[in-house]
Write a structure and sequence with these properties.
Layout lengths: L1 E6 L3 E6 L11 E6 L1 H12 L3 E8 L2 H12 L7 E4 L6 E6 L5 E6 L15 H5 L1 E7 L1 H5 L3 H14 L3 E5 L9 H11 L5 E5 H8 L4 H10 L4 E5 L5 E5 L2 E5 L13 H14 L4 H15 L12 H7 L9
Parallel strand pairs: 1-4, 1-8, 2-6, 4-5, 8-9, 9-10, 10-11
Antiparallel strand pairs: 2-3, 6-7, 11-12, 12-13
The protein binds 2-keto-3-deoxygluconate.
The site of 2-keto-3-deoxygluconate has 13 residues, from helix 1 and helix 9.
Family: Belongs to the carbohydrate kinase PfkB family.
GO molecular function, one term: kinase activity
Protein name: 2-dehydro-3-deoxygluconokinase
Length: 316
């Protein structure tokens, strides 16, 4: 049985060897990224069981990603390779302050070949949470049929639907994101969103206003991510604001949201109270930004304890 299962595209991430405008960067490190896979890796490192449903190109990069995910302990039994659809690429530009721009080469995503009929009902039945993000339906409208089938399978088997809008404006317009994601939100049980994303979808940025709307449509858990301002959560009629954890140093902000999600989910699935789950999410997010790479900074449980000073770090 998996604690969480997720569907989405992963890609090879080319991380620049130097900061500054990409046009002047001469070498890159080959890494792996993809919001949903990052989340699955984050959950697995903390000790949860995760499964990832996807398609990869039948090429060297696809094999590398599958092996990487498997090496992290993510269940890849629902990942297949497809001919004629090269594994997607993502070149990152990182500035001195850790801010990032991404340049995608993902026009013919292998995930376009995944069909609703490919989803194995028993895989859903044997999971506690289905985690989805707004990236997968943004890649192409064809993915939305799979996305909706996944939600219906989760609902059928009492699996909680967790959702992060993860709005990527290089993949769709604000209007398209708003129209589609506002249709999806009533099916969501756990909403993990940035305040600016909710402003795009619902036109409100204030966490209390977002929570009011979420309550109206029956969302059980809400966590609103506000970057260095912390996070605000809602569960069981309780609203709590938690300060951000200070990162040791910000070198790469990509993946912080996925880290928060993994930490928060770890709390929820372990029955922690809202405050503790939010604090844990903030801590994991703060740890991610100190390491270059989309998922390299995702901590193991022991790393979190050391970061929080709850466990001694023996260096030599
Ligand atoms: O959340 C981090 C992701 O954005 C990154 O790993 C790459 O999935 C990605 C995307 O579509 O930008």
């Amino acid at each position: 049985m998996n604690d969480i299962i997720t569907i989405g595209e992963a890609m090879i991430v080319f991380d620049p060897s130097a900061t500054g405008p990409l046009r002047f960067v001469n070498s890159f490190d080959k890494k792996v990224g993809g919001a949903e896979l990052n989340f699955a890796i984050g959950c697995t490192r903390l000790g949860l069981k995760s499964g990832w449903i996807s398609r990869l190109g039948k090429d060297e990069f696809g094999t590398h990603i599958r092996n990487f995910a498997r090496g992290e302990g993510v269940d890849v039994s629902q990942v297949d390779f497809v001919e004629g659809y090269p594994t997607s690429l993502n070149f990152k530009e990182i500035m001195e302050d850790g801010s990032v721009r991404t340049f995608y080469y993902r026009d013919k995503s292998p995930t376009l070949t995944l069909t609703p009929e490919d989803l194995d009902e028993s895989y859903f039945k044997n999971a506690k949470v289905l985690h989805l993000t707004g990236i997968y339906p943004a890649i192409d409208p064809v993915n939305r049929r799979v996305f909706e089938k996944a939600i219906s399978l989760a609902k059928k088997h009492g699996v909680k639907v967790s959702f992060d809008p993860n709005i990527r404006l290089k993949l769709w317009s604000k209007e398209e994101a708003r129209d589609y994601l506002s249709e999806i939100l009533p099916h969501v049980d756990i909403l993990l969103a940035g305040d600016e994303e909710m402003e795009i979808i619902w036109g409100v940025k204030d966490p209390e206003a977002i929570i009011r709307k979420a309550k109206e449509i029956g969302i059980t858990y809400v966590a609103i991510k506000q970057g260095d301002k912390g996070s605000v959560g809602y569960y069981n009629d309780e609203v709590i604001k938690v300060e951000a954890k200070k990162a040791r140093k910000v070198v790469d902000t990509v993946g912080a949201g996925d880290g928060f999600n993994a930490g928060f989910m770890y709390g929820v699935l372990n029955g922690w109270d809202l405050k503790k789950s939010l604090e844990f999410g903030n801590t994991v997010g703060a740890m991610v930004v100190s390491v270059k790479g989309d998922n390299e900074g995702l901590p193991y449980l022991e790393d979190v304890k050391i970061f929080l000073g709850e466990k001694e770090n023996i260096e030599r």
